[in-house]
Amino acid sequence: MKDILAIVSFGQHLHWSQMQYEHYQRFMEDSSDADFLGALAHWLASLFVVVEGWQEIGKSDPVISNLIAKYDDYYQLMRRFRNGVYHFQPKPMSEKLTDFLDAKSEGHA
After folding, report:
1. CA-to-CA distance for 48 and 79, rounded, in angstroms?
2. 59 φ, ψ (degrees, to nearest 5)
3. Which of 20, 57, 62, 66 gets the highest tally of CB atoms within 10 A of its CB?
4. CA distances from 92 to 2, 75, 98 (A)
5. CA distances from 57 to 17, 26, 32, 82 (A)
6. Global pTM value
7. Domain definitions of the chain by residue range
8. What pLDDT is attached to residue 102?
9. What is the pLDDT of residues 17-76, one digit of tens each?
10. What pLDDT is stored for residue 109 in this prediction?
């Protein structure tokens, strides 16, 4: 029963993250920078919870596991980003946010 509840909880967080993504998409056009950044921050923070939940429930998928292992540095930046969103920071754009936003991926040099 405990495993089923964890999977249901994972699905809940996945759904909430999807809702945040849809909210973010609405702000991609015709919005202030502050609204856009706020929507982006909440979506990315919720996405980290999904990745964290995936690991917590102990399920495996070779594609997902390989992505998490390959991009552990981004995973750690994303964890800090989530903390920067949901824990008070004395600066509006703390390093917890800017380190993730400034990170370069394979596709973006």
Report:
1. 6
2. -80, 160
3. 20
4. 39, 22, 10
5. 17, 31, 38, 20
6. 0.84
7. 2-102
8. 92
9. 999 999 999 988 888 999 999 999 999 999 999 999 999 998 889 998 898 889 889 999
10. 45
| CA separation, residue 38 to residues 59, 62, 63 (Å) | 31, 33, 30
**Among candidates 52, 67, 61, 69, which has minimal Cα distance to 14?**
52
- Provide the token pair at 104: 């370069």
Indicate the residue type of 31. S
| Closest-CA residue to 11 (of 62, 44, 49, 43) | 49
- Decide if 105 contacts 73 (C-beta within 8 A): no
